Prior knowledge:
The chain is an alpha/beta fold. The chain has one domain: Glutaredoxin. Helix content is 35%, strand content 18%. The protein has four helices and six strands; from the N terminus they run ββαβαβαββα. A six-stranded mixed sheet has the order 1-4-3-2-5-6. A hairpin with a 5-residue loop joins strand 5 and strand 6. Helix 1 runs parallel beside helix 4. The longest helix has 16 residues. The two termini are 21 Å apart.
Amino acid sequence: VGKSVPKISLVSLDTGDESLTLSGKITLLNFWGTWCPPCRQELPGLARLASRLTNEPRFQLIAVSCGGGNRDDLDQLRSETEAFLASTRIALSPWADPTGDTRLRFTKAFGFRAYPTTYLIGADQKILAIWTGYSPSVETQIAQSVARSLKQFPATGSLE
């Protein structure tokens, strides 16, 4: 906590877009997998939170769908992720880390080692909080931390 975020290289599973902006936003970065039971429990709550904050331009959820290995087959991952999201009616735009580079950087910086892991990132691109694993209280903890972060972040988008 308090460390700067390492370089993030992700691909949108919806559009193939690779442009991602963290600066000036409160970001929830969640690493999850369709194969991971705790991830499947946690994701609906994160999607509900993001839905409640749809009209909040200072917030974004980046849900990174991960396969079980270090590198991911993008087509297979897209297919499995789309099927899971459709079957659970979870509305979000998933991202992928097909090369595994982002996960490796987060492992080196923060000891990322389990799924799901969620990082709360400030508008200054510093880590505000980290949650590893899932428990029923995590959804409330994350929502409260996001609300606090938004209160501390001026509506103008300026950090001054």
